[in-house]
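Budget justification aside, the reviewers requested a transparent look at the raw inputs and outputs of the sequence design task funded under Objective 1. We therefore reproduce one unedited record. The lines immediately below are the structure tokens for a 233-residue chain.
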């Protein structure tokens, strides 16, 4: 894979030069300076150059070659991609489920390994003790907390937590290899209606543009490989 990448980079650089693409030296110098400033000291920068087998001139040359390839790709591929409104609308209609959210709950839990202890904790909660305080005093392990979507967890957990009302807790539930859970529901979120096309059209356009870019880049590379004489030493 690394060899293939090296070949493709060389082919793109060769084609960029053939097309007469150039990069201003001030832009190369600016990128060089950004790289250098990424190191805490000049010594660290020099060590990196040494490890890469590069001199300052060698790094400058590599940066320029990278920028030539980038400019070629923008000129020959990215600037020629146009995603029309119909393509965006068609994608939206075909992927409606991706723009909505199922039912969710903000869940917390107390997790212990002993059944009798779990039952004792449950009794304390039923008496009205604060869940957070009980958890801090008794929970032995980290369990499940935060916002989760319906269908995201094990079925036996899913069925319990989505049957609870807000600010209520479950009876102890044994989960094999984990222990005894007491779940607490902080908040419930109903399913979100799908977002409108206006809200997501830019995200869709970016996605379709990237797909088209990858497709055109692959086609270009295949074409360059076919008409090039490649020797691997």
């Amino acid at each position: 894979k690394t060899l293939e990448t090296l070949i493709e980079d060389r082919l793109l650089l060769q084609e960029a030069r053939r097309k007469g693409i150039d990069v201003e030296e001030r832009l190369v110098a600016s990128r060089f300076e950004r790289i250098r400033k990424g190191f805490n000291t000049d010594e660290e920068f020099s060590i990196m150059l040494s490890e890469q087998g590069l001199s300052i001139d060698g790094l400058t040359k590599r940066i320029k070659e990278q920028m030539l390839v980038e400019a070629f790709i923008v000129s020959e591929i990215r600037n020629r991609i146009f995603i029309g409104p119909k393509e965006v609308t068609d994608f939206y209609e075909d992927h409606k489920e991706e723009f909505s959210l199922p039912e969710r709950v903000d869940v917390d839990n107390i997790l212990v390994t002993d059944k009798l202890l779990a039952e004792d904790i449950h009794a304390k909660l039923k008496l009205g003790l604060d869940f957070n305080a009980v958890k801090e005093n008794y929970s032995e392990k980290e369990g499940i907390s935060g916002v989760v979507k319906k269908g995201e967890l094990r079925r036996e957990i899913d069925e319990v937590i989505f049957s609870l009302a807000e600010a209520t807790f479950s009876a102890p539930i044994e989960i094999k290899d984990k222990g005894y859970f007491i779940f607490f529901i902080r908040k419930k979120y109903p399913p979100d209606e799908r977002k409108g096309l206006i809200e997501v059209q830019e995200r869709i356009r970016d996605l379709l543009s990237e797909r088209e870019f990858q497709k055109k880049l692959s086609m270009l590379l295949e074409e360059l490989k076919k008409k090039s004489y490649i020797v691997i030493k």
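The first helix runs from residue 2 to 18. The chain has nine helices and four strands. Computational costs for records of this kind are itemized in the attached budget.
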